[in-house]
Amino acid sequence: MLSLKAAGLLDVDDGKIIRPGVVRVEDDRIVGVGGPVAGDVIDLGDSILLPGLMDMEVNLLMGGRGETPGLSQVQDDPPTRVLRAVGNARRTLRAGFTTVRNLGLFVKTGGYLLDVALGNAIDAGWIEGPRIVPAGHAITPTGGHLDPTMFAAFAPHVLELTVEEGIANGVDEIRKAVRYQIKHGAQLIKVCCSGGVMSLTGEPGAQHYSDEELRAIVDEAHRRGLRVAAHTHGAEAVKHAVTAGIDCIEHGFLIDDEAIAMLVEHGTFLVTTRRLAEAMDVSKAPPELQAKAAEMFPKARTSVKAAYEAGVKIAVGTDAPAIPHGRNADELVTLVEWGMPPAAVLRAATTVCADLINVTDRGRLAEGQLADVIAVPGDPLADITVTQDVNFVMKGGKIYANKN
Hints:
Blueprint: E1 2-6, E2 8-11, E3 16-18, E4 21-26, E5 29-33, E6 40-43, E7 48-51, E8 53-58, H1 72-75, H2 78-94, E9 97-102, H3 114-123, E10 131-134, H4 170-183, E11 189-192, H5 211-223, E12 228-234, H6 235-244, E13 248-254, H7 257-266, E14 269-271, H8 276-279, H9 287-310, E15 313-315, H10 330-337, H11 342-348, H12 351-356, E16 373-376, E17 392-395, E18 398-402
Parallel strand pairs: 1-6, 2-7, 8-9, 9-10, 11-12, 12-13, 13-14, 14-15
Antiparallel strand pairs: 1-4, 2-3, 4-5, 7-16, 16-17, 17-18
C-alpha cells in the first residue's frame, strides 16, 4: 500500500478542500481517503490533491514539436504523426490530464485509426500518456469544416480522403464511415455539423449535414452503444444537432437562448474550448479567416456563461493543439476569468467529463476509484491558476511526475 499525504484534498462534489489530505492507494485503485497513512508514504507538503483532470477535445496526432503549420497535411506521413504524438501525450499527462478524448482525425492515414493505436500503446505501457477515448476519423461532408483540403484551399484531387477516412456524403456513405470507425476501435463518433473559423467553408454557423444525415450518424452510433460529439458553432445547427440526438456539442460559440434551453432539456453536453478564443494565433491566417475569428471569438465569452447559468452540462475541452499540448489547464483559467466558479470548473474537468464518457471509475478522490491523482501548489478554489503548475501526477497507481 502507498499513502499520499498533502495539506489538503479536493472534494469535487462538495466543492471543498478537506484538510489534511490523505489518499491510500493499492495497485491501480484508491482504497481509502482521509484517516491515517499506511504503507509507504509520499509527503507532498503544502500541495493540494485533486483527481486527475480530463480534456474532452484534443487531437494528439496534430500539433507539437517539429510540425510545420500549413504544410503538415501534405508533408507528414502517419508514422511521423504517431511519433510526434508520443511527445504530445507525455506533455498532456504530465500537465495533470489523465484522461482525454481524441476527437476525430482529419488527416490522410490510409484508413488507419492512429488515435486507437496511440491509446493501445499507452495502455500497454510502451509510452507515457493519458487514457485515450478515441473517435477515429471525424465524419464530415466533402468541403465540410473537417475536410482537410479546406484548410489550405487545395486544388481538386490534392489530399482527397476516402469514406473510411471520414469523408462521407449521403446516408449510405455515412453509415459505412461510422461502421468503419467502430470496427477498428473508435469509442465515440465525431461529426462535423457546422462550419468553423479556420477553414475556407463559408459561414462558421452554417449547418453542413442534413437532418437525415445527422440522424443516420446518431442511429449507427447509438445502436452500437457509442455517443456522438459534433463540431457545431451556429445556434441553428446546434438546435438541429440536438434534435437529431447528438450527445455532445463541441464549441457552440454562437448558441442563443433557445439553443441553450434545448441543451438543458435534452441533457446534451457542451464542451468548452474557450481558451482558443483568447490564445489562438490567427495573425498569419488569410484575411477572411481573421474576420471570422474577430466576429466569433468575442461571442464565446458570453455564450459559455449563459450556458452555465442555465444549467447546461459543461465539460472541459481545449481543442489542443489550438492551444499547445500540455497547456490544457489554461482552459480552466479562462473559464473562471469568464465567470464560472472555480468549483464548477473543476467539476467540468472531472465528474462531468466522467459522465460524458459514461464511466464511473474516475473523476473523484474516493474509495474504489482509479488512482488518478495529481497535486497542485495551492488551493485551486481560491486560485485556479495553480492547476497550471501541477507538481505530482499519478495515473493508475503509477507515478509519472513528482517535483516535490
